[in-house]
Amino acid sequence: MNPLRIFQLFIVLLICNISSGQEKGVYKLKSSKVTFSSFSAQELIHASSNQLKGLIDPDKKTFVFSIDVISFMGFNSELQREHFNENYMETPVYPTATYLGKIIEDIDLQKNGEYNVRAKGKFKIHGVEQERIIKTQIICKDGTIVIHSLFNVLLSEHNIKIPRIVNNKISNNINITVDAIFVRST
Amino acid sequence: MRTIFLLLLLCISPIIKAQKPFTRDFWLNEAATPIKVNAMLQDTVGYIWLGTDEGLLSYDGMSFTKITDSIYKPVTAIANENGNIWIGYANGKVGLVNKQHVEEVKISNCPTSPINSIYVEAEGHLIFISTENGVFAVLNNTAAKLDETKGLGDNFTYGMCVYPNHVLVGCDKGINDIRIINNKLTIAHITSLQGLSDNIVRVIKKVPGTQLCWIGTQQNGIDLYNEKTKKIIRTNLSGSWKWGQINDILPVTTTHAWIATESGYLLEANIIDDTSIGITPYYNPDKAYKKLLLDAAGNVWCGTNKGLTLMTGEYLRYIKLDMPYLLHDATAMVIENDTLFIALQNQLFQLSIKNPDAKLIPIFSTQTPITSLYIDKDKRLWIGTWGDGVFYMEHHNAITNINNTIIKGGIINIAGTSDNLWVSGLNGVEQLTYPDKQKVTLVKHHDKKSGIGSDYVYQLYPDHHGNIWMATDGAGVCMYDGNQYHHWSSFSTSNSRVAYSIAEDTAGDIWAGVLYKDIYHLHNNQWDNIRRHETQYVDINISSVAANATGQVVSVSQRCIDEWYPRSKYFRHFNNAMRMGIDSTSNVLNCIAKDKFGNVYLPYQHGILIFKNQDRAYSIQPHVHITRVNLFLKPVDISNHKFSYDENYLSFFFGGINFSNPERLNYRYTLEGYNNDWVNTRDGGVTYPKLPPGKYNFRVQTSLNSGFEGAHEDSYSFTIDNPFWKTLWFYIIVILACLGIIYAYIQIREKRLNKILQLKQERMRFEYEHLKSQINPHFLFNSLNTLTDLIEENKEHAIDYTVHLSDLYRYILAYPDKDLILLSEEMEILNNYMHIQKSRFGTALDISLDIPSNVLNSKKIIPLALQMLVENAIKHNIVSAAQPLIVSITANNNEIVISNTLRPKISTEKKSGLGLINIVKRYRLLTERPVTYGIFQNEYIVTLPLL
């Protein structure tokens, strides 16, 4: 690579600025259900929430999701819910879990169709952010987007500590199911 | 070209399926805890550098050395630019390795997100960095960011591939082809819309020698990309990937690459033709393969989420065999196309080396053990037995037994040339025709008497000229060229007469395994005995020798296998200490086989080892590197080559770098200038205390065996200076100083002599003048007149006067040869003179004296000076009763002052002032203190210094 070319490249990099496309209507989350379950030899723990908030930008193919951790209900006992919020998730300190990122596949969300896509972005639980690729099923139909996704979260990746005494009750691997319906905002 | 392709088609993809590489795992720390490897490279010296979550490590084959740095922990990218190691960190910082630590490279506008790959050019003036937040081009330490706003497909970027005129960068939205066209930044996007299997492109690697790139993706495996046409080539693998996210690709040849995946697969990929790629997976469920590196010795290093794994796939593989296979049953082997025939005692089995799940299939059995297998040019399989004669099998079915009078009893070995079949038995070698209607005929019988020199031939080996080489028991190696037998004197001593095995390498050299003597190597008709230094305590028998098609020669001993690299005189050494599962070898003579490509197969405990033809010219030669120089036990800057005379306690530390057999590294060193002997050692250091001044060169070489011919060397030359009193300039200064002193002495002496001479002359002149003045008739007449008067007036006074006059003349005659006289002596003269003059002038002359008595006897004056001055006063002034002449002489410690009232005579005597000038001159020769004289307030005053 000759020095002149290097210099050219550099100058071009510094001055070049291509403007991005225009904003169009985004999709807002209408209804949802998020469930998590933890299988272990001793006990099945599960809970769910319908408090998921979310937005999808069909042009940029970006998205953002957020959920209040406190909104999970349906534990085996109230005590378990308390432990979940206070001991493990530390909900008062880290009240929300978020996921924001982009859709990898080249699909047109404005067109009707059914797709299996990968969502890639920053997944944040318990204050610890991880770069995650999550596979999702998307159905686009007449201005609505229905998503369905199954994935898991490793507690160890998010610095969620399990006391040794309940070690065999709680698996490190938590399965999560997300179902949501988005509608185009007008 | 087409045939090569055909060959590739035939061999690579199917055969390798059943042939697994050996692997060996390494922990990166002593605690044996997992450390994730993010980046790897081998530098030009030979060190392997590992960028891990715990920082940067260097590896020499023996140990991992942590490189200190204070920049950040996870090292995520490494680049080698002309021997400089550049480091990218998970916080976007860039470092440069300087000796044993990393220095941060300050970049303005530098990235802040994890660096995924880094490329450095032109000594760091140009750096490309791909990060999770765009690509950075760094020119002279200023970064320009290229991101989505400037046309990049996605900010999250992974691998890069830098070409002279453009850069390919993989990102979450396919490939970016970045180039400058007409001063405009142009980015072409290659995504799934252009046929890419997957938009997340993690790896881009050039396929050597082609325009193609391997593209490794997150979900859908690999694609090929033609960077000239900018076209994605879809292959048979597109859409059917099942081995997980690709983390790295290691291209080895134009068609062959290794692929590392997150899901624990190490994949061997072979481009079969334009659109099909063969994949052979090796699965290791408890590892995620992160990075791959091919070192100079042909080892593939896999950086994993736990540490490092060594993989031998480029030179050694194995086929695992289960029962009924047992190593000690294996007696003979041969390969035809893809079928391996192996004799386990009396049973003959066949094995498909294509099929990954191949099992041993019995095809034939004999009464006595099978000793030899051979496949001739017409594809007949010949089977030699230990008592049932020879069988042959045509086209995998009809078996014919030849057990006639020609071939009977035990068969040792069978071989064939184009026209003849050669069978070695207990009574020599039979040269036979190939069977015609199931009948073979004897062409010639060779035995001890006919010229072999022995009746027992362990191996018959036809070379590429058609000569038959024979490994004999008793006559060493014998060669029969069709007419006569050739012997070499190398095999005439008692412990070199038994040869077991013979092979010809690709260069046409013959290798022979000989009892007690390891290996003989024939080059230019000269046998060279190569002995390994551990022979005496490891092994004495070499059971088999065979050469592959790329120049390596495999020799099998009882407890180890060596793979020789003839050009370098080095060998890979395999034994059970290597922790790779090569724990055994066969001691059956010549139980070894080659496939049609030249790969060498031999049995071991768990199946068959395959010493592969090697795609590249690998070098297993170890390297040595002087790592540290200590002065008085403290490290010094290795770029310093000069020491002063008292810096003479030096230690040198060196380390070998070898990844094939680091445990066998040994060194030898010498300090030229101290003594020229080489010292052998296995330690990595040596100390020289009290080195005398001089020029030195420390040299160290390393070897894997005891031979150092052509060994790699490192050296450190240095000088210990002479102490300053032994240096040339010191000598020069001393000589100059001596010369100066002598010169000054001569000068001073000459000056003094001159002065003395001058003084003498002046004195003589003074004396002369003085005498002349005293003999001046005027003075004499005056004196005599005075005397006459006195005689008349006062006789006694006249006598006194005469005494004074005579005293005066005596003094005048006595003193002039002296330079100085005591003031008292001078006063004596003056008194005499004054007496005479007083007698003449009476009251007209008044001379007052005021001289302290201590001065009189301690101070000196030049003789006759006072007399002279008083005389001058009388001479030049009017002396009369009316106007008496007053002369006063006063003295202190330093000077004497003669003053008189000034009443000059109208006509003075001539030659005035001569006496005074003489006095001044004489004083000047004796002292620096001045003689002053002159008129002051009507007085004439002369001041003489007292000495």
Question: Can you walk me through this structure?
Answer:
The complex is a heterodimer of chains A (186) and B (947). With 186 residues, chain A is mostly beta strands. Chain A is 13% helix and 48% strand. Chain A has a single domain, classed as Lipid/polyisoprenoid-binding, YceI-like (Lipocalin, Beta Barrel), CATH 2.40.128. Chain B folds into four domains: 209 residues, Thrombin, subunit H; 277 residues, 7 Propeller (Methylamine Dehydrogenase, Chain H), CATH 2.130.10; 104 residues, Sandwich (Immunoglobulin-like); 205 residues, Heat Shock Protein 90 (2-Layer Sandwich), CATH 3.30.565. In chain B, β23 and β24 form a beta hairpin. In chain B, α5 packs antiparallel against α6, α5 packs across α7 and α6 packs antiparallel against α7. The N terminus of chain B is likely disordered. At the A-B interface, α1 of A face β14 of B.
Short précis:
With 186 residues, chain A is mostly beta strands. In chain A, 13% of the residues lie in helices and 48% in strands. The model of chain A is unreliable at 18-23 (pLDDT under 50).
